[in-house]
Amino acid sequence: MNLVQLKIQKDGSLASYIKILRKFDSSLTIGGIRQNIENHDFVIAFDLDHYDVVEELQGIDRKALFMDMIKNLCAAGARVSVYQNGVLSSMERLDHRLRTMKEIAQEVEKDIDRETE
User: Fold this and answer.
1) What is the pLDDT of residue 4?
2) Is the pLDDT of residue 1 over 80?
3) Angle 33-82-97 from CA coordinates, rounded to 5°
4) Whole-angstrom Cα distance, residue 81 to residue 45?
5) d(CA 8, CA 14)
6) How much is the pLDDT for 55?
7) What is the DSSP letter of 6?
8) How many helical (H) and strand (E) elements, i.e. helices and strands, does the chain have?
9) Could you give the count of Cα atoms lying within 13 Å of 87 in the half-sphere of its Cβ?
10) DSSP conformation class of 41
11) What are the respective helix, strand and coil percentages of the chain, to the nearest 5?
12) Fewer CB within a 10 Å sphere, N or C end of the chain?
């Protein structure tokens, strides 16, 4: 598992953060998000290895949506802490990791295409 978790520092803009988080994952409860922020617990977790064939067919890139959600939180004023597999990380490191994963996937796809020709 390649887990990314987020903590958000409590401030006066919880409502806007909750809205952004629920837009990404509607299964999160308002009360749960609020409680996790207030207790400085992880508010959301995302497995970078997540794969859904239906999303793939529909052209949905959950990793890109996850990064957009983090950027939207930051734009709304949230102070976000990023953890990768339980270790404090940074947005830059996460962004680099996602770009690398995408490049590897593209190379694998090219290799498969070459082998089937």
Assistant:
1) 94
2) no
3) 130
4) 12
5) 9
6) 80
7) E
8) 5, 4
9) 5
10) -
11) 55, 15, 30
12) C
Closest CA to 69 of 87, 43, 50: 43
| Residue extents of the structural domains in the chain | 3-116
Over the stretch 48-96, which tens digit does the pLDDT of each residue have? Answer: 887 777 887 888 888 889 999 999 999 999 999 999 999 999 888 988 8
Average pLDDT over the chain reads 90
Q: Which of 63, 60, 53 is nearest to 97 (CA)?
A: 63
Most confident of 33-42, 54-63, 106-115: 33-42
Please calculate the CA angle 45-84-62 and round it to the nearest 5 degrees. 50
Residue located via tokens 């987020």: 6
Q: Report DSSP state, residue 7.
A: E
The pLDDT value recorded for residue 58 is 86
Q: In a 3-state reduction of DSSP, which class is residue 53?
A: helix
Instruction: Give residues with Cβ within 8 angstroms of 12, minimum separation 6.
Output: none
> In whole angstroms, what is the distance from residue 42 CA to residue 17 CA?
13
d(CA 20, CA 13): 11
